[in-house]
Write a structure and sequence with these properties.
Blueprint lengths: L19 E7 L5 H12 L4 E3 L7 E9 L6 H6 L2 E9 L1 E3 L8 E4 L9 H9 L3 E5 L8 E2 L2 E2 H6 L9 E14 L2 E8 L5 H12 L3 E11 L2 E2 L4 E2 H6 L2 H6 L13 E3 L2 H8 L4 E2 L5 E9 L10 E10 L2 E7 L2 H11 L12
Parallel strand pairs: 1-14, 3-12, 15-17
Antiparallel strand pairs: 1-3, 2-3, 4-11, 4-12, 5-6, 7-10, 8-9, 10-11, 12-13, 16-19, 17-18, 18-19
Helix pairs in contact: 3-5
Length: 339
């Protein structure tokens, strides 16, 4: 090689048709999409998507879907969420979080942080409530995110949205910092909740820390950090891939026989004696052992209405085969057979 010439770059490794879910513990300061792209690159995955945006200032659970699992990403997006939130009392900011400029400060008295008063403030925002989306959010207005208008000093009128706060547990309240565990429906703005609790206490507040700990039936158990993924070799990373039905773990399951499974995969409804259900996971027998009812593979999702099992989202035969090759077969504790 002559002086001044660059050494040739090593060839890029090809993308792979991976199928499964990685439970990422998203780090602070990284957007959900940036985290997705980094993990997608590490796995060399052909197709990937995440299951709901976490702000850069938030950490915690971000399920990432590869291949066939992306068909069920909406399930996690629509699922109830769980967060640990840290709230700074006595300080109101323009954004409702630590990124904004301070708008006002108020004294936080011992009476305001008395356990019974804090409990009453949290209880006031439990159940179905209306929230006005914050201006500093990704919600769109005429094709632009609200935060873009906010940066230009433009205030857009926003209609309240109905959300459900299933429960708020007080983890700690010391001096002017309140830490709470929140279980809520999708679309809940924890920043807005923090501000509302502060106003109810009479001192105002803003969010200084947020960590997502659950989404539907998935928790941080088994989640992996980005730093840990970077330190692994490819085989160790692949071993972390969970099957797509981890996103459906809290749904009832249905096991079809071989013939019904084949027909179901073509989109045909199947007769069943099972009661109506809005959403179920549907499995067929493992192709390598069709007579063994303890081994099954995911076929897709469905709902049951009027004695019929009606497909909602289906995997293709190639995707089913890909899931089997990557994850083997599910080992259920209890199976419910459709007839």
């Amino acid at each position: 090689m002559q002086a001044g010439q660059r050494s040739p770059r090593p060839p890029r490794k090809p993308r792979r048709a991976l199928h499964g879910v990685v439970l990422l513990d998203k780090p602070l300061g990284l957007s959900s999409n940036d985290a997705l792209q980094k993990v997608k690159w590490l796995f060399r995955a052909e197709k990937a998507g995440h299951t709901g945006t976490l702000d850069p200032l938030a950490t915690g659970l971000l399920p990432l879907c590869f291949g066939a699992a992306t068909k069920f990403s909406q399930v996690s997006l629509d699922a109830d969420k769980r967060y640990t939130a840290r709230v700074k009392l006595g300080v109101v900011t323009t954004t409702g979080d630590a990124e904004g400029e301070v708008v006002s400060t108020r004294e936080v008295t011992p009476e305001m942080t008395a356990p019974e008063r804090v409990a009453a403030a949290c209880a006031a925002f439990t159940g179905e409530i209306d929230q006005v989306p914050p201006m500093h959010s990704a919600l769109k207005h005429e094709g632009r995110a609200l935060y873009e208008y906010a940066r230009e000093g433009i205030e857009i009128e926003r209609a309240p949205r109905r959300v459900t706060i299933h429960g708020i547990d007080i983890l700690n309240c010391q001096d002017d910092v309140l830490e709470i565990d929140v279980r809520c429906s999708k679309g809940t703005y924890i920043r807005t909740l923090a501000q509302d609790i502060g106003e109810h206490l009479g001192c105002g507040a803003h969010l200084i820390g947020l960590r997502r700990t659950g989404s539907g039936g998935v928790t941080l158990d088994g989640a992996v950090t980005l730093d840990a993924l970077l330190a692994m070799d490819e085989s160790d990373r692949d071993a972390l891939l969970q099957p797509a039905d981890v996103l459906l773990a809290d749904w009832p399951d249905v096991l079809l026989g071989e013939q019904d499974a084949t027909r179901f995969l073509t989109g045909l409804r199947r007769r069943t004696k099972l009661p109506d259900a809005p959403q179920v996971r549907v499995y067929g027998p493992h192709p390598a052992a069709p007579a063994d009812a303890a081994r099954r593979v995911l076929l897709g999702s469905a709902h049951i209405q009027g004695g019929e099992l009606i497909p909602t989202r289906l995997l293709s035969p190639a995707e089913v085969q890909g899931m089997v090759l990557m994850h083997g077969a599910s080992q259920p504790v209890e199976l419910v057979a459709a007839s």
